[in-house]
């Protein structure tokens, strides 16, 4: 049954509508299921791709949010089976926030008598991952939410009650052990807690980590033997929290540091390294190279000094846009070296999951081109970096105005090299306000797509995606 919202907040519409609620980011209000006879396929879907491609998005039910990051989570999935697209569906994640449209998050979550938070209050809007036989919709301020293979909500997931606080939207998955490494951050102590979940989904480690204060820690990194935390000067501001919106601001006083600890270690094993002040929403990968730990990520020199606006269009100073950056930490001497690897801006970096934590060659990302074809600044292109060639890149350029999202690498069956596989993302097509799933050859991303699955609807531009293959 379609659900519509008849009472949209006018602040989300018209010429003054904010950047995060227009064009490809315009919310959709009904939940639909589109079957294969209404999905137009161009090219040939590789028959070995059996599973679901799912993107999580912020999609405020009221049509309005103060900030891009806080809208109600909506999942957009497409199932591929034996060379055919079986269905597309979009579903809200059923959370207390969903059940109370437009309600104040703090009022929903905070018990004023005990000053404790209900971590089932979530937007569940940031990422969606598969682990331990479960599909989890993630948002960093709350518990994960389990959904089923048809995107219907099962409920909050607490790892049998071991998880009592927030859980990052960016866990790392060890290709050797199947472990999920994660963390949660909080506005009260302990500000940071490290989690390790075994391949079967059991939380086997929960370790408080000492940091300077409450920050927004969006991502982490992990090598085969080390876990890496980014303690950066985007700090929690209680006054901003009381006003609603994004309660984070830049600090010139807060130290910028990366912490490296053994994967199964404790706070006493942590070693901190000072870095240039800046922010990194997303790491690409990390690995150990002898005494050095190397981290790649998308760095910006500063975040949210005067406001938490997110526009990345041509008006924004190119030097302030996210760019691929390398940090090298010598665990023996304490020395740090760092620098950008590309002048062009990109975000939403991904790798072949089999290379997580290991020396690797290829990284994929979404070009932040600001090419004037839309206001998002995220239009146009996917990048493929070759780290063996000093970060040189190849580009897939989409037709003018088309907006891809985060590229997800899916290995070919029996893959024989790191980039033997596919690159998948949803692309928004402004001329029809519809979207399509594109499948590129990851070994030759500049080539024409292998296949496109056209959906007679807009798949809202959003955050992170996963390919969740059928169980084998
Ligand atoms: Fe993210």
What's the shape?
globular
CATH superfamily: YVTN repeat-like/Quinoprotein amine dehydrogenase
Give the termini distance in whole angstroms. 32 Å
Give the biggest sheet: 6 strands, antiparallel
Number of helices: 3
Bound molecules: fe (ii) ion
- The share of residues in extended strands comes to 35-45%
Total number of distinct structural domains: 1
Q: Poorly predicted ranges (pLDDT <50, ≥5 residues)?
A: none
Radius of gyration over all CA atoms, rounded: 21 Å
Q: What percent of the residues sit in helical stretches (DSSP H or I)?
A: under 10%
Question: What's the number of extended β-strand segments?
Answer: 35
**CATH third-level topology:** Methylamine Dehydrogenase, Chain H
CATH architecture: 7 Propeller
Query: What's the mean pLDDT score?
Result: 93
State the secondary-structure class. Answer: mainly beta
